[in-house]
Write a structure and sequence with these properties.
With about 375 residues, the chain is α+β, with helices and mostly antiparallel strands. The protein is built from eleven helices and 17 strands.
Length: about 375
């Protein structure tokens, strides 16, 4: 009886210690919004979601794609930041938020891009769409093609502005995907999203993203509002080596979309961290090479490996190197040789290709024959 009591006590103590070592993470906040999502921008890991795949009208969040395509065209060399864009009557007449360009004006692409991002100008969006594709209608087709390339599977655009139109829809998850692309693919233009003011034609307008004034870690991204969409905000912030992206859709006020976004970002930064497991080309170990001038080759990871973990949970990470069979020369530097699988508490959280860290040339005839003989003999053991 005493032995049984002692065993139960020991189990309770052991279990208590194990539980104490696990990071404590409370339930995520519940927001007053139609849909919302919080992800780690480095890894894409979802930390919080609610109705993330519900299709909703995106309002001016549409302009994130408009800006992305313009940045793509600049990077390809199809247009330049200094190109002068003629303003059409259609662009000038468009209602809603404006940059206040006029018919016949010729405005630099970079100024119009600021007008789209900072002032949420419908006129600037249409002017750029017409300059890139000839018409807003054709530009909308390009937007949909780009959305498909980015993996935005539940999004369909009808215009460059977010003006209400039947079938003009997206989701919180797709908007987070687009936000990651803006940040990673065009960092030179992503910095525009953090600018608080932009003046054109003597009119100084503030960025509608209130978080830029409330939180120094926030550096983007875009607001949106229509009666059907409600007040929306896609935000991004960077702190202690971690970048988060929050998407909040369908709140009932300008202040509410900012406050609810802050709740998500605060939760993510408080309870999670981005942990860098390996840097690109880190050599993990050496492996035997048959028939090579060198007997071994270093195995490296192809790219940086980041994982999202509970804050303080580094000791729960495990990484396994899996080689695709025996290695034979010749081997080229960077040649895929296997993979590294990273797990957190037994669940796979990342996979990256394992590659050769250096070149291994094929050995001469006699060395290859000797290695072949050794392999043959070893196959019996």
């Amino acid at each position: 009886m005493l032995k049984r009591l002692f065993a139960c006590l020991l189990l309770m103590l052991t279990t208590g210690v194990a539980l104490a070592e696990q990071p404590l993470i409370p339930a995520p906040p519940q927001l007053a919004a139609t849909a919302y999502l919080l992800i780690d921008a480095h890894t894409g890991q979802v930390l919080v979601e609610h109705n993330a795949d519900k299709q909703v009208p995106p309002a001016s969040l549409t302009k994130m794609m408009t800006a992305y395509i313009v940045s793509e065209e600049i990077e390809k060399g199809s247009i330049k930041e200094t190109d002068l864009v003629p303003i059409s009557e259609k662009a000038w007449k468009k209602g809603g938020s404006k940059m206040f360009v006029k018919v016949g004006d010729k405005v630099p692409v970079i100024d119009l891009l600021r007008g789209v991002i900072i002032q949420s100008g419908n006129d600037a969006s249409i002017a750029l769409a017409e300059y890139v594709s000839g018409s807003e209608e054709v530009f909308a087709e390009v937007m949909n093609q780009q959305a498909e390339l980015l993996g935005m599977r539940d999004t369909h655009f009808k215009n460059a502005t977010g003006w209400p139109a039947e079938g003009h829809m997206t989701t919180a998850r797709d908007l987070a995907t687009l936000a990651r692309a803006l940040i990673n693919d065009h960092p030179q233009h992503y910095q525009l999203y953090s600018e608080k003011y932009f003046s054109y034609a003597g009119i100084n307008q503030p960025n509608r993203n209130r978080l830029l004034w409330r939180d120094n870690s926030v550096d983007g991204i875009k607001t949106g509002h229509t009666e059907a969409a409600g007040f929306c905000l896609v935000a991004s912030a960077q702190k202690r080596g971690m970048r988060l992206i929050s998407v909040v859709l369908g709140t009932d006020s300008d202040d509410k979309r900012a406050a609810e976004s802050q709740k998500l970002l605060a939760y993510g930064f408080r309870y999670y961290q981005t942990h860098k497991v390996y840097s690109a080309e880190d050599v993990l170990q050496s492996e035997r090479v048959w028939g090579g001038k060198e007997p071994q080759v270093g195995i490296a990871v192809e790219s940086d490996v980041f994982v999202t973990i509970p804050r303080g949970g580094e000791e729960s990470i495990k990484a396994d190197l899996i080689i695709d069979g025996e290695l034979e020369a010749p081997i080229q530097k960077g040649q895929p040789l296997g993979k590294v699988v990273v797990t957190l508490d037994g669940e796979t959280v990342a996979e990256v290709r394992a590659v050769a860290a250096e070149e291994v040339e094929q050995a001469g005839f006699f060395k290859r024959m000797w290695d072949a003989l050794k392999r043959f003999v070893m196959s019996f053991f």
